[in-house]
Specification:
about 475 residues; alpha+beta; three-stranded antiparallel sheet; 20 helices; binds zinc ion
Length: about 475
């Protein structure tokens, strides 16, 4: 199978590239062949190691040959029009750049032009070839930033290097992730309307009914610290709340189909603005909406304003936590009595027998002042959220009663990467990290990365020193 001639814009250069590639292969083979010297019979593992060590030399050389043949005209360009004023410029010099890709390294000498009128310089080849300003090209950056969103920087840099053979450091991981995170706006991280509609249609088809769309909101405490200032001691760490939401569809057999996760260290007002933007992308008349959350004050008004037809459901599991907490205080923790009491109250709650529950609570004689306080708080909590407790009909109508989905989103998006021991986040970089983790969860990471790559090459012809 030959290489497509079009790639090189002509038949003869294909053959030239092929010759160069064959030469590279010969050189590589000689390099590897020593493993067979003196009748040695290497194992697969030994072969694999040797291939891994030398693969980059071969593939880098082949890639270079292809690039040199394809971009022959730009590599030897003598004159170029200034992209700003149109004046034809003469090449000023050639700049060597080392490019590192997932498949090896090579260098290119790129002609450089400088316009005296516009006082700006440029390398035409960089734009044509989509060269990243950094040494490590975008193929590496895309995977490196994603890996860093899963594991601590140092660990992920090490893993990445050992698996790809490309040496990257933790600073590179850190800088790339932050740079990608900076362009990861809510608009990009949330799937667009067509994609959301497609997911809704799919669930409607599979279940044969109007799908239930769950909007869950929650807060999680993040360890943060102030930005370090020059010549100043860093201030003490602080716990700040990451406020976020997860929107998903209840699919066949109760499966969860992701629509969007979004978590940021931010205040309630910013949370509301973010939720409103996402609400606009959802065709609300085509789903049955469940608003599911705990009793936190800051989230309900926003959820109701953004999804006015949503059914408000107090998360049953949060409710159960309160009840168990009260049981522990009133009876001795771990006793059968505590267990039985909590279960009795919860089964009444799940049947929406609110009057019975409240009358039980009011008639209790507290064992201690702490128990009295717990009971008082539980009564207040249930009364405040009374309109949100209707678990029996919720279940009959196919709505979830527990926000397991949002809880797991919080655990997955926020806790697993952010709450590592000793990890303290500056708000900005913590939010960058959260945005990337959300993009990965929402299936929009590639789109975010593309935007980053396009912007990092901007302006097309970067300002370069003369
Ligand atoms: Zn010019």
């Amino acid at each position: 199978m030959g290489l497509p001639a079009i790639l090189f814009g002509g038949g003869s250069s294909v053959e030239e590239a092929r010759t160069l590639a064959h030469n590279a292969l010969d050189m590589w083979f000689d390099q590897v062949a020593s493993i067979f010297e003196n009748g040695q019979q290497p194992t697969i593992s030994e072969l694999s190691r040797r291939f891994g060590e030398t693969r980059g030399d071969l593939m880098g050389a082949v890639m270079q040959a292809m690039v040199e043949k394809t971009y022959h005209h730009l590599l030897h360009q003598e004159h170029a029009p200034c992209p700003w004023c149109g004046q034809v410029l003469k090449r000023k010099r050639s700049d060597r750049k080392k490019l590192s890709t997932l498949h090896g390294e090579f260098s290119l000498d790129r002609p450089y032009f400088f316009c005296l009128t516009c006082k700006r310089g440029f390398h035409p080849l960089d734009e044509a070839l989509g060269i990243a300003p950094e040494r490590h090209q975008y193929d590496i950056q895309e995977k490196a930033a994603k890996a860093a969103s899963v594991m601590p920087f140092e660990e992920s840099a090490e893993q990445f290097s050992s698996m790809t053979g490309v040496e990257i450091g933790d600073h590179f991981q850190h800088d790339t992730l932050n740079a990608v995170g900076e362009v990861a706006t809510l608009e990009l991280v949330i799937p667009d309307r067509e994609e959301i509609e497609r997911r809704i249609d799919e669930v409607a088809k599979a279940t044969g009914s109007k799908p239930v769309l769950v909007v869950g909101a929650d807060g999680a405490h993040m360890p943060t610290r102030p930005k370090a200032e020059r010549n100043k001691k860093r201030g003490p760490g602080q716990w700040k709340e990451a406020k976020g939401f997860r929107i998903y569809l209840v699919g066949e057999d109760g499966r969860t189909i992701q629509i969007a996760s979004w978590h940021q260290i931010q205040d309630a007002e910013a949370f509301r603005a973010d939720l409103a933007l996402v609400a606009e992308r959802i065709p609300q008349d085509r789903v049955r909406i469940a608003l599911l959350a705990d009793g936190a004050e800051w989230l309900w008004p926003s959820m109701v304003a953004c999804f006015p037809t949503g059914r408000q459901i107090l998360d049953f599991y949060h409710c159960a936590e309160h009840v168990h907490g009260t049981a522990k205080e009133q009876f001795v923790e771990g006793t059968l009595k505590a267990q039985q009491w909590a279960e009795a109250v919860l089964s009444l709650l799940s049947l929406s027998e609110m009057d019975d529950v409240l009358s039980i609570l009011r008639k209790m004689s507290p064992r201690s002042p702490d128990a009295a306080e717990k009971i008082r708080k539980l009564i207040g909590y249930l009364e405040k959220n009374r309109e949100r407790i209707h678990y029996e009909t919720d279940r009959e109508d196919g709505y979830p009663i527990g926000s397991g989905g949002i809880e797991s989103s919080h655990k997955f998006v926020c806790h697993t990467r952010m709450k590592r021991s000793g990890a303290w986040w500056v708000k900005e970089s913590g939010n960058s990290m959260l945005r990337i983790r959300c993009a990965v969860a929402n299936g929009t990471y590639e789109r975010v990365f593309e935007r980053y790559a396009a912007q990092s090459r901007q302006p097309f012809l970067r300002l370069v020193d003369k």
